[in-house]
């Protein structure tokens, strides 16, 4: 009961338009105790995408500590969905709706504009992943990395790929790594190799390995 009261106080600070739990604006009772999450959260300011990501991540962590309770699940699920949707916004639209625009800009040779939009979508995908608990959608990261690769800007390619990897939930075992994560890790390794070659001073070869000394019958070879 104490946890649900904490959730109610926290969520009540924010305005999340369109979130409801139960019918006719009433919240179903979570455990018969009367401690229920509000049907509609009333705040003084609209919830911003960054705030939605922060609140959603916090709510998900609190949810993990709740013993399985279907009544609580029914109340929290719609809230997390609303927070994830809000965290996903880019220029008033869900980030996934911008890919056609990216394709158009790239087709016109407007890589600068495309990259700017892609990086906003990368941010949104990573915000949404904080709420959902899943790895961010990789497509926008890959497209941004592709532009950096064409520009031979390997340092920024590495940076955007490392950001994606850091936003993924940690894997306890190697078997838990998804094919997408393996593909992105392979691309990151390639980008790091290209960056290393690019930053190596021209005309300078890697230092040779130290020659080994062999001894045969007490005589240096």
Notes on the structure:
The protein folds into two domains: 2-87, no CATH class; 94-199, Serine Threonine Protein Phosphatase 5, Tetratricopeptide repeat (Alpha Horseshoe). The longest helix has 22 residues, at 111-132. The protein has eight helices and four strands. The strands form two sheets. It has a two-stranded antiparallel sheet. A two-stranded antiparallel ribbon has the order 3-4. Residues 17-44 and 212-221 have low confidence and may be disordered. The chain has 221 residues and is mainly α. Helix 3 runs antiparallel to helix 5 and helix 5 (111-132) runs antiparallel to helix 6. The chain has helices at residues 2-11, 49-64, 70-87, 99-107, 111-132, 139-150, 154-167, 179-199, and strands at residues 89-90, 93-94, 215-216, 219-220. It is 55% helix and 4% strand.
Briefly, what is this?
This protein has 221 residues and is mainly alpha-helical.
Tell me the structural class. mainly alpha
| N-to-C SSE string, H for helix and E for strand | HHHEEHHHHHEE
Count of individual beta strands: 4
Examine the coordinates and then state which fold CATH places here, giving the name of the CATH topology of the largest domain: Serine Threonine Protein Phosphatase 5, Tetratricopeptide repeat
- What is the helix fraction of residues, given as a range? 55-70%
User: What can be said about the biggest beta sheet?
Assistant: 2 strands, antiparallel
Morphology: globular
Strand line-up across the major sheet: 1-2
Mean pLDDT: 78
Please identify the top-level CATH class of the largest domain. Answer: Mainly Alpha
CATH architecture descriptor of the largest domain:
Alpha Horseshoe
Backbone CA Rg: 25 Å
Structural domain tally: 2
Distance between the termini: 80 Å
Number of separate helices: 8
Uncertain regions spanning at least 5 consecutive residues = 17-44, 212-221
Give the DSSP E fraction (strand runs of 2 or more residues).
Answer: under 5%
